[in-house]
Structures are given as C-alpha cells and as structure tokens.
Amino acid sequence: MITLWGEGRGFRVAWALEEMGLPYRLRQVDMLAGVENDPEFLAINPAGFIPALQDGETVMVESVAIMEYLMARHGPTPLAPDPRDPAFGQYQQFLHLGEAGLAASMFFVVVAKILAPEDQKDNWGTRKAMSTFESRRKLVALQLAKSPYMAGDRFTAADISISYALEFARRAGGVPLTEAEAAYLKRTTAREGYRRAMDKCAAVKAWAKSLGEDISW
Ligand SMILES: N[C@@H](CCC(=O)N[C@@H](CS)C(=O)NCC(=O)O)C(=O)O
Question: To test the ligand 1 pocket, which listed residue (50, 111, 204) has its Cβ within 8 A of the most ligand atoms?
C-alpha cells in the first residue's frame, strides 16, 4: 500500500493518485506541532518537510518528482503525454514551473507574511520572490490564451502542478486571480480526482471551507 505523508504540496500527490485510481493511505504530519515530535515521520524524511511518499522499498520527497515516479512506475496514464507527443515539451515545462517557478517562490512570500518580524515582511528577498512568481505566471497566462490546459486540449499532471500553485497563491498569499486563471481553476477543480483528493485531505478541505470556497459536492 502506498503511503502519502503530509498534505500541503502533498495535495498534488493525492490528486495524481486519485486521477490514477491508485489505493493509498494519507498519514497526517502536523507541521505546526513540530516535526521534531514525530519520530516516525523523521525516519521517513530526516529533513522534516512534507510531502513524502512510501511505496514498498521506495521512499522519496518532492511533490513533482513523486508525481513523475507514480506515473512512470504505475502508469501508463493520460496524466503524462508520451515523450514523442508534440505537447511533451510544454507538459514538462509547466509540470516543473508549477513548483520551481510558482509555488516555491510564493512559499517564501507566504512564510514571511506569517512568520517574519514586521520589518522583514517586505524586504528585498520577499519582493524578489514575488516578482519571480509574477514573471513565471506570465507564461501560464500566455498558455491559457492559447489552450484550455497547460499541454493543450487535455488535462495532464502539469495542470495538477499549476493548479496547486495558483490555489496556494490565492489562499495563502492573497493573490487575486485573473479571469483566465479563475476559469482555468474552475475547469481543473471540477474533476472527480480533485474532489476525491479534497475529501481525503481534511486539512486542505477545512482551509478551503474557512475561506468560503464552494466545496459542496
Ligand atoms: N519542493 C518541495 C517543497 C516542499 C515544502 O517546502 N513543503 C512545505 C509544506 S507544503 C514544508 O514542509 N515546509 C517546511 C520546511 O520546509 O521546513 C515539494 O514540491 O515537495
């Protein structure tokens, strides 16, 4: 049985698992209580961040890498286009840009907003993180002007990666979405796989509910 450790970016992994119809259990990791109090989790990821995945002998971290692992090990799946598909380059680009360009940049804006001393909340580093997020976001806007999904006309794991990042920016960073982004999220989050992942990820679901999102499915 596959075990997913932690929500947060683990939501991407839960969504991919649901889309693929793979059975798994979600082991909650309470980051606020402090991972130093969770030796079972530290044995899985000694670096102490979420998510992590355990699949038999395989233990790994990094949400996008975990999705790539699941699609390769347990696929084939329509979530990953064939490497000879003309859309493969765009797919790979947005799969990684969702984390490396968008969520990773926004993460530093959000933690500064929540945890930094007042005079450090808006410093050079947080402004740079925000401008990096905004520059990568332009590529998403250009893609959405051309096609409904990141890899063209069908939903792929790149959309899981990008949708997570946009939702994180909106929910945690207070970033207002453009009309095109909102319409895109309406498409991607209407999927059964997203809804099942939300039902599994109790903390993400409670957070969305507290923000007044319509999660009545
Ligand atoms: N690039 C990583 C980011 C992992 C990450 O930063 N996770 C956050 C929660 S979503 C975390 O555990 N932060 C605490 C820390 O880094 O110590 C991924 O995509 O999995």
Answer: 50
For residue 52, the tally of other CB atoms under 10 A from its CB is 24
Dihedral sign of CA atoms 51, 54, 55, 57 in order: positive
DSSP 41: H
Angstrom CA distances, 10 to 13, 35, 97, 139, stand at 5, 16, 17, 24
Give the Å distance between the CA of 10 and the centre of ligand 1. Answer: 9
The answer to whether residue 56 sits within a structural domain is no
User: What are the pocket residues of ligand 1 if the criterion is a CB atom closer than 6 Å to any ligand atom?
Assistant: 8-9, 31, 48-51, 62-64, 99, 104, 107
Domain assignment of residue 165, given as a range: 88-191
Q: Tell me if 49 is assigned to some domain.
A: no
Nearest atom in ligand 1 to 107's CA: 6
Whether 66 and 28 have beta carbons less than 8 Å apart is answered as: no
Whether 214 is in a domain gets the answer: no
End-to-end CA distance of the chain: 27
Per-residue pLDDT reduced to its tens digit, 139-194 = 999 999 999 999 999 999 999 999 999 999 999 999 999 999 999 999 999 999 99
Question: Which residue, judged by its Cα, is nearest atom 12 of ligand 1?
Answer: 49
CATH of the domain at 178: 1.20.1050.10
If one counts the domains in the chain, the total is 1
Ligand 1 center to residue 63 CA distance, Å? 9
What's the predicted TM-score (pTM) here?
A: 0.98
